[in-house]
Specification:
By secondary structure, the protein is an alpha/beta fold. It has nine helices and 18 strands. It folds into two domains: 210 residues, TIM Barrel (Alpha-Beta Barrel); 127 residues, Lyase, Ornithine Decarboxylase, Chain A, domain 1 (Beta Barrel), CATH 2.40.37.10. α4 links the parallel β4 and β5.
Length: 351
């Protein structure tokens, strides 16, 4: 079996899932994109095993995929788009909750007369989607035309000022209309505290739901490992050319052909900012190396990350190993570092 393999300690992983779910009141597992490396259907099945009553997907087309394994309530996180036929059809599904992030869209849905289920999104400092707090007063008059499921508040990951922002927007939303508050990226302990703080005069906390994705599915890094198969090994001399782009080999050594390429997410990573002098120095150094035609690969051979000979191919990659090193054998598995939110593996081994 050759390819890119994700190996999972299934018992420990599921123990982690239950721990997170138990510590997160009102948890709503997020299942979207590539299914955090596991696939949408698998995570829908795991959500059923957790016993949750609601999951969240990113876009309308993902509803049909998860519904095969999860027949209960499904929230669509991306804002409703009036031009999307599928999104509009799903607003008529009794088990689907649609997110509305623009006043005009709320007006359109409220005017239909069939009272679709909606979450109204409040604009946060992310400046991505939502109705500004100053405009929430205009929402109240439209709510009788829909089945109002609450306010959704998608906070940034940055912790400074996050609780204060959640508090301010929560007060603004509840002053407009009572309803459940749905949070993303607010820790459970802060959510519980805020729910009590925003509660009514009767002392009852405001009802909350917490959407959780990465912390749930990928929070315990020790449960998983990823490997790639060595497909071929070739001895080369300094100055020889190799690869699609006929790159010059920098020294005597070995070209190791390993499974995994752009179709697996190899060589892809989310952009990050350089916040410290050290980070900027690393960025400068690696940028200079890239400009020189060198890039460090995510493959580890003999305990070290190795350099790409050239950019990854679609389903395989070529890395360079110095002559003094012992090359791996064909068929051997070598560690490969993958960002699972952007990766597609060939096999998942549920140990």
């Amino acid at each position: 079996m050759s390819g890119v393999t994700l190996r999972l300690d299934a018992e420990r992983w599921r123990e982690h899932l239950h721990t997170v779910a138990g510590a997160t009141p009102g948890i709503v597992p997020v299942i979207k994109g590539n299914g955090y490396g596991f696939g949408l259907s698998r995570l829908a099945e795991e959500s059923m095993k957790l016993g949750v009553d609601t999951i969240a997907v990113g876009i309308p087309s993902e509803v049909a995929v998860v519904r095969e394994a999860f027949p209960d309530e499904i929230v669509i996180l991306n804002p409703w788009d009036a031009s999307s036929k599928l999104a509009t059809e799903l607003t008529r599904e009794p088990s689907v909750i649609t997110t509305v992030s623009r006043l005009r869209d709320l007006e359109l849905l409220a005017a239909r007369g069939d009272r679709p289920r909606v979450l109204v999104e409040v604009l946060t400092s992310m400046q991505r989607h939502g109705i500004p707090a100053d405009d929430l007063g205009r929402v109240a008059a439209l709510l009788p035309g829909v089945r109002f499921e609450g306010w959704t508040i998608h906070l940034p990951l940055h912790t400074d000022g996050r609780y204060a922002e959640a508090e301010r927007l929560g007060y603004s939303a509840l002053a407009t209309a009572s309803g459940r508050l749905w949070f993303s990226h607010l820790p459970p302990e802060e959510t519980v505290t805020l729910a009590r703080q925003l509660g009514g005069a009767d002392g009852e906390p405001v009802p909350v739901r917490q959407r959780v994705g990465t912390r749930l599915w990928l929070g315990d890094k020790g449960v998983r490992s990823t490997t790639a198969t060595v497909l071929d090994v070739h001895e080369v001399k300094r100055g020889e050319r190799a690869g699609y782009r006929q790159r010059v080999c920098p020294a005597d050594g070995w070209i190791v052909v390993v499974s995994g390429g752009t179709s697996h997410g190899i060589g892809m990573e989310a952009p990050t900012s350089a916040k410290t002098i050290r980070h900027r120095a690393i960025a400068f150094a690696t940028g200079s190396l890239a400009a020189a035609g060198l890039a460090l690969s995510p493959y580890t051979i003999n305990g070290k990350k190795r350099w790409f000979l050239e950019p990854p191919h679609m389903q395989s990659s070529q890395v360079f190993l110095p002559r003094k090193e012992k090359p791996p054998r064909i068929g051997q598995e070598v560690p490969v570092e993958l960002r699972l939110t952007t990766a597609t593996v060939d096999y998942i081994s549920w140990d």
